[in-house]
C-alpha cells in the first residue's frame, strides 16, 4: 500500500485564493498583527511566512518584533497597543516566549475578540461548551484538511498523541463535538502501552515532538496519519512519523507540507472571519 498524501500546501493555496476573493469584497482591509519576542530563527521564519501569506490574500500586516531582552511589561505594552489599534483586526503572540515571561499572562491579556490563535482562556472555554469563537489554528487546520479530502471523522476511533495546549487538548474537543463525532483517545508521556491505542485507531494525529516516534508497527493497515510534531536535529527538521508509516497508512499528512501550511491558512481565515463581523 502507498498512502495518499494529504497535501496541505496545495490545499492552503486553494483556501488562500478563496480568502483573497472574500477580502476583496470587504469595505475595510483586515489587519493581522504579530508579536515576536527574541531571536529564535524558527519563530522568525514562521512569522515571516505569516506576513507573506497576508500579502498574498490582501490582509494588512502589523509586525512587532521585540528583542530577547524585552521585559514582560514591554510585551504587555505591545499587547495593549494591538488591543487598542483600529488597524488590527486580530493578532497572535508567537510562542514560545523567552524564559522569565509568562505565556499564560500574555494570552490572558489579549482582547478575546482579536485572539487570532484561539488560545485566550475565554475562547478555549467557549470551545468546551460549543459556543462560536476563534478556533486554535492547528486543530482547525487538521479538520479542514481531512474535510477537503472527504475523510470523515464520524464514528472513527481517533488517537491524538500529545496533550499540549495548541494542538492535543483543543483538537480532542473539536473531534468529539457534534458534527465531527469521533471517539477520541489522548496519549501522553504517562500512557501505558501506547501501541495498544494507536494500533486500533482509524486516525492518528502525532503531536509530541519526538522524531520518528510513530512507526509502521504501531498502526493498523489503512489508518490515516497526520504528522504535527517537529524536532530539530543535525539532519534537519524531522516529524513524529517514521517514513515507513506511508507503506501501511491509507493517507498521510507529512511534515513538512501537511498540517503546517493549513495552520497558517486557518490563521488568515480566523482574521477574515473577525473582519466580517465588524460593522
From TrEMBL:
Q: Which InterPro entries match?
A: Aminoacid_DH-like_N_sf, NAD(P)-bd_dom_sf, THF_DH/CycHdrlase, THF_DH/CycHdrlase_cat_dom, THF_DH/CycHdrlase_NAD-bd_dom
Residue limits of the Tetrahydrofolate dehydrogenase/cyclohydrolase NAD(P)-binding domain? 136-277
Keyword Plastid, does the record have it? no
Looking at the record, the residues that make up the Tetrahydrofolate dehydrogenase/cyclohydrolase catalytic domain are: 6-117
Alphabetical keyword list: Hydrolase, Multifunctional enzyme, NADP, One-carbon metabolism, Oxidoreductase
Q: Which Pfam families does this UniProt record tie to the protein?
A: THF_DHG_CYH (PF00763), THF_DHG_CYH_C (PF02882)
Give the pathway listed in the UniProt entry for this protein. One-carbon metabolism; tetrahydrofolate interconversion
Q: Does the keyword Hydrolase apply?
A: yes
Listed GO cellular component terms? Answer: cytosol
Among PANTHER family, the record links this protein to: C-1-TETRAHYDROFOLATE SYNTHASE, CYTOPLASMIC, C-1-TETRAHYDROFOLATE SYNTHASE, CYTOPLASMIC-RELATED
**Subunit note:** Homodimer.
Name under which the protein is recorded: Unannotated protein
The species this protein was found in:
freshwater metagenome
Amino acid at each position: 500500500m502507498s498512502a495518499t498524501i494529504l497535501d496541505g500546501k496545495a490545499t492552503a493555496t486553494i483556501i488562500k485564493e478563496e480568502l483573497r476573493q472574500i477580502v476583496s469584497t470587504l469595505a475595510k482591509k483586515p489587519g493581522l498583527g504579530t508579536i515576536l519576542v527574541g531571536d529564535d530563527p524558527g519563530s522568525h521564519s514562521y512569522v515571516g511566512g505569516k506576513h507573506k501569506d497576508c500579502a498574498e490574500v490582501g490582509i494588512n500586516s502589523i509586525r512587532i518584533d521585540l528583542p530577547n531582552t524585552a521585559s514582560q511589561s514591554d510585551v504587555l505594552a505591545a499587547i495593549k497597543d494591538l488591543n487598542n489599534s483600529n488597524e488590527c483586526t486580530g493578532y497572535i503572540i508567537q510562542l514560545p516566549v523567552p524564559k522569565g515571561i509568562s505565556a499564560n499572562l500574555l494570552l490572558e491579556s489579549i482582547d478575546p475578540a482579536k485572539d487570532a490563535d484561539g488560545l485566550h482562556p475565554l475562547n478555549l472555554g467557549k470551545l468546551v461548551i460549543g459556543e462560536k469563537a476563534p478556533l486554535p489554528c492547528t486543530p482547525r487546520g487538521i479538520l479542514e484538511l481531512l474535510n477537503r479530502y472527504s475523510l470523515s471523522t464520524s464514528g472513527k476511533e481517533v488517537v491524538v498523541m500529545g496533550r499540549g495546549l495548541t494542538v492535543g487538548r483543543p483538537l480532542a474537543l473539536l473531534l468529539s463535538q457534534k458534527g465531527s463525532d469521533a471517539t477520541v483517545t489522548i496519549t501522553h508521556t504517562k500512557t501505558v502501552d501506547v501501541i495498544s491505542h494507536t494500533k486500533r485507531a482509524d486516525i492518528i494525529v502525532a503531536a509530541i515532538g519526538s522524531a520518528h516516534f510513530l512507526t509502521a508497527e504501531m498502526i493498523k493497515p489503512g489508518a490515516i496519519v497526520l504528522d504535527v510534531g517537529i524536532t530539530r536535529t543535525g539532519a534537519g527538521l524531522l516529524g513524529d512519523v517514521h517514513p515507513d508509516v506511508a507503506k501501511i497508512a491509507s493517507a498521510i499528512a507529512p511534515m513538512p507540507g501537511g498540517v503546517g501550511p493549513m495552520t497558517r491558512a486557518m490563521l488568515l481565515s480566523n482574521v477574515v472571519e473577525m473582519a466580517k463581523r465588524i460593522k
